[in-house]
What does this fold into?
Amino acid sequence: HAMKIGFIGLGNMGGPMAQNLAKAGHDVTGFDTQTVTLDGVATAASATEAARDADVVITMLPNGEILKSVAAEVIPAMKAGAVFLDCSTVDVDSARAVAADAAAAGLLPLDAPVSGGTGGAQAGTLTFMVGGDAAGFETAKPLFDIMGSKSVHCGASGNGQAAKICNNMILGVTMIATCEAFALADKLGLDRQAMFDVVSTSSGQSWSMNTYCPAPGIGPKSPADNDYKPGFAADLMLKDLRLARAAAEGADADTPMGQAAMALYARFVEEEDGAGRDFSAMLPRFEARGRG
Ligand code: NAD
It folds into this structure.
């Protein structure tokens, strides 16, 4: 049956996600601080107006601070029993704080960050990693099935964010390892195609090598074949690695490889030419440097 949905944050991800829900027949009212008009999506004058009477309120916002301020405004306006569904990537502590406030107000909170990028948002093929009660997950499941092709219930509130940052910490580390190994192979005179053929079928394989190969002209089509235009921007990888560090500090977990990847992406984005480039552009960056 059609649900009434308030959608707050209609950016690169939220815009197409809201549109896919409207296309599937749901009654969607959107709000963004920027002027955004989307076919089939009604526009509200405020976040509160978008949230009032909604069965589900979805947020897709830049960070935890903005999420907390929007949640403080919207939660008191929502009807009892409604689902507060945050799909942003934020720190685990903010996700858990917002979920506690929503639950105290009689709502069903879910944290459901996504992977799949803007292409997945447009095509409706995102993966949702979901924290929160089973009842909320069951209510939101039909919406996950429209906006995505996979949703995994990861347990209590905050666990969706935990799954997301752990996954992306592995991704950042394997991408850097793959790029530095390609740069070493080049200097040793090993052909890139031979390197790919061996590693992609040997124990060094990973998604970074096999699916998203950072070397242009090698392996399946990837941002390397498009001059390293994102794709998944290095800036966003840096954001996720910083969230992983914050979570590791809060939980007293030892994550030295995650920290090393974070420091390399910080330097790449903030001091080198990495801002706005795909995160696999670490390969030309390693190529350009010697050991010094
Ligand atoms: P974006 O900057 O394109 O969109 C964010 C939107 O939120 C903007 O339109 C902005 O105007 C709006 N906004 C900011 N403050 C607001 C407020 N107080 N009230 C209402 N609207 C407000 O970012 P995006 O790429 O859509 O990413 C959104 C989230 O999804 C981020 O947390 C990001 O980390 C995560 N994410 C992004 C990708 C990606 O590839 N872009 C992939 C996975 C996850």
About this structure: The longest strand covers residues 148-155.
